[in-house]
Amino acid sequence: HSETATVLLLLAIIAFLRGFKLSPAAAIGATSLVNVFMGVWGFLWLTLCESLNKFAQKIPLKSFATRLLQNALVIAFVASPVIYWVLKNNMLAPSYPSFSFIQYLTEFFPYHALIWKSSALNILSFLSMVGSFYVAVQKLEGQPRLRMAFSGLLLLFGIGAALPLISDSRILLVLNILRVDSLMHILTALT
After folding, report:
1. How far apart, in Å, are the Cα atoms of 130 and each of 138, 154, 190?
2. Which of helix, strand or coil describes residue 143?
3. I need a surface site. Which of 1, 13, 73, 186 has the fewest CB within 10 A?
């Protein structure tokens, strides 16, 4: 299902690049129907992109807040069956004994969710990919939305890298935000 959700997030990115107003939010809502975690990434990514756009275009705060609210409403409407299911299941879920989710990730999935467990080669490869994107996009004049889309993904990756340092929350860490790098690789390859 991650592959299908990736395609839907790519559609959101394409809609953002083309300047469509609510289509990215609709695609992100559809992503949530397939993979709710990736839908959360999409919501965060679109919020980061809108924030970058606000500062780049000096958009008034009221217009910016309106756009964020519109995006959130469209995503929530499209994803409403999943939102209902998640809320219902979390309310009915049994309570589990307290444990360190970071310790669990360290023992069972260290390379999947914890940046400090990555090898130097993986980190160098990631930094090379980021550098390659910015070199390539610099050659393409007049592509500020492409730069914003990638920068939003990069900021989201940074949030995912920092999250285990500031929180041991299972619900946040299970999002595996570092996996957003797959979209960064695709966007770099397409650039």
Report:
1. 12, 8, 13
2. coil
3. 1
Please write the tens of the pLDDT for every residue from 60-110: 999 999 999 999 999 999 999 999 998 888 766 667 777 888 898 888 887
Within 8 A by CB and 6+ apart from 100, the residues are 168
- Residue 67 tokens read as 């756009």
The two three-digit tokens of residue 7, written as one number: 């395609």
Give yes or no for a contact between 146 and 140, defined as CB atoms under 8 angstroms apart: yes
Q: Rounded to whole angstroms, how far apart are CA atoms 19 and 25?
A: 12
From CA 26, how far away is CA 159, in angstroms rounded?
Answer: 24
Q: Output the pTM of the full model.
A: 0.91
Q: Is the dihedral of CA 30, 55, 184, 182 positive or negative?
A: negative
